[in-house]
Amino acid sequence: MAQTLQRLDPDRRRRRIRLLAELADAKAVRDRVAPRQAYVNQVRELIAARRRSARWT
After folding, report:
1. Can you tell me the distance from the alpha carbon of 4 to that of 16, in angstroms, rounded to the nearest whole number?
2. Tens digits of per-residue pLDDT, 38-56?
3. What residues contact residue 16 under an 8 Å CB cut-off, 6+ apart?
4. pLDDT tens digits for 5-40?
5. Which of 10, 33, 41, 43 shows a CA-CA span of 20 to 30 A to 2?
6. SS3 for 48?
7. What does each C-alpha distance from 20 to 8, 32, 45, 46, 51 come to in angstroms?
8. What's the CA gap between 50 and 24, in Å, rounded?
């Protein structure tokens, strides 16, 4: 059975969008301040994604 999504009320939706934007901005600042760590995190995410996809094949 497909999972149904509930429609969020407008205020909650706006707060969620604002929070996600702030998180994205914080990540961008962190990546600019610590580029080496950002590179390491990207490599780790790539490895994890490949491992996840390898499980399904």
Report:
1. 19
2. 899 899 999 999 999 888 7
3. 8
4. 566 688 999 999 999 999 999 988 887 888 888 899
5. 10
6. helix
7. 15, 19, 19, 22, 27
8. 23
